[in-house]
Amino acid sequence: MANLQSTESAYINWLRRRIPAHPRVLIGPGDDTAAVIVDGTRPLLITTDMLMEGSCFLLKEAGPRAVGRKALAVNLSDIAAMAGTPTAAVVSLGLPRTGGRELAEQLFEGIHELADEFRVPIVGGDTNTWSGQLVISITVIGESIGHRPVPRSGARAGDWIFVTGHLGGSILGKHLSFTPRLREATALHQQVTLRAMIDISDGLAKELHHLGQESGCGARLRSAAIPIADAARQLALTSGKPPLRHALGDGEDFELLFCVSPEDGERLLQNPVVPVFHIGEMTDAGFEIEIDGNHEPLEAWGYEHAMSE
């Protein structure tokens, strides 16, 4: 287990204490995207993600087209988590010196495939070569669908917790082929008031802890209500972990985890505009999961980037 003082989360918390507030910054570090006021109307959303060969993907196994597609998809997923719409993207590549041109072209084909699906123009970027492996970083700019983006910090005790799809076992393929839930976020935002939302990149349990901590709440999940993917059940046959543990902690599902009032929750269940699953409720404090009638502590299972001190 990574030292709690030498993780990405700890570094982000360190940064947040040192970055001063600014009148144009509606949402800064610590959420899925930043939100910046530019012209006094709808906030501008800005998000970026870097993928590194050997850490985030294995190029020989995935192939460059799939890597390019995923590099854009993870950013579009962040825009979806704020109930936003993407407007443009820039792409930066750190290419190996050997075979870099062909690699870059294949990466672009994967990026363009998804960009075309969601009508996101690629407007620039940067390209460099070096002696290391492939590094790809994409920044996406977007806009809020409504007057304000949906942050992680708006949940209240009593809110219902939902997810948009089945979870776990993403390493068997979904981590490369997932579709960002932009359409789902738009449909949900038009039907109900989304109080808090986050995309599941590092694991359901870990993201729920993030959302609860930012909102000053706890949460209680019902294990029987969590939609477990067939891939999680397949992975459990060899991993030694039960399917539920995979659904709670595998990560890279890129489904949306969100909270609404009980009234809006009933509306979603009675007239679902997209598939959703009601998996629990927000509470005053603490994180737990109900398994076979027993309430057990819910640890923040999921992926954490370790950083050496």
For this entry, give a set of tags.
alpha+beta; disordered N terminus; 7-stranded mixed β-sheet; Phosphoribosyl-aminoimidazole Synthetase, Chain A, domain 2; 6-stranded mixed β-sheet; 309 residues; 60s Ribosomal Protein L30, Chain: A
Query: What does the radius of gyration come to?
Result: 19 Å
Summed over residues and divided by their number, the pLDDT gives a mean of 92
Q: Count of helical segments? A: 10
Strand order of the largest sheet: 8-10-7-11-9-12-13
Full CATH superfamily name of the largest domain? PurM-like C-terminal domain
Given helix and strand content, the structural type is alpha+beta
Low-confidence stretches: 1-5
SSE topology string: HEEEHHEHEEEHHEHEHHEHEEE
The CATH architecture name of the largest domain reads Alpha-Beta Complex
Q: Briefly, what CATH class of the largest domain?
A: Alpha Beta
Overall shape = globular
How would a textbook summarize the main sheet? 7 strands, mixed
CATH topology of the largest domain: Phosphoribosyl-aminoimidazole Synthetase, Chain A, domain 2
How would you describe the oligomerization state of the chains in this entry? single chain
| Beta-strand residue percentage | 25-35%
How many strand segments? 13
Compute the separation of the termini in Å. 15 Å
Q: Estimate the helix proportion, in percent.
A: 25-40%
Count of domains: 2
Description:
- It is a single chain.
- With 309 residues, this protein is an alpha+beta fold.
- The protein folds into two domains: 8-144, 60s Ribosomal Protein L30, Chain: A (2-Layer Sandwich), CATH 3.30.1330.10; 160-297, Phosphoribosyl-aminoimidazole Synthetase, Chain A, domain 2 (Alpha-Beta Complex).
- 33% of the residues lie in helices and 26% in strands.
- The chain has helices spanning 8-18, 59-62, 64-81, 100-117, 174-177, 182-191, 204-215, 230-239, 243-249, 262-270, and strands at residues 25-27, 34-36, 44-52, 84-96, 122-130, 135-144, 160-163, 196-199, 218-222, 256-260, 277-283, 287-291, 294-297.
- The strands form two sheets. The chain has a seven-stranded mixed beta sheet, with helices on both faces.
- Helix 3 packs parallel to helix 4 (100-117) and helix 3 (64-81) packs parallel to helix 6.
- The radius of gyration is 19 Å and the shape is globular.
- It starts with 7 loop residues before the first helix and ends in a 12-residue tail after the last strand.
- Mean pLDDT is 92; it is low at 1-5.
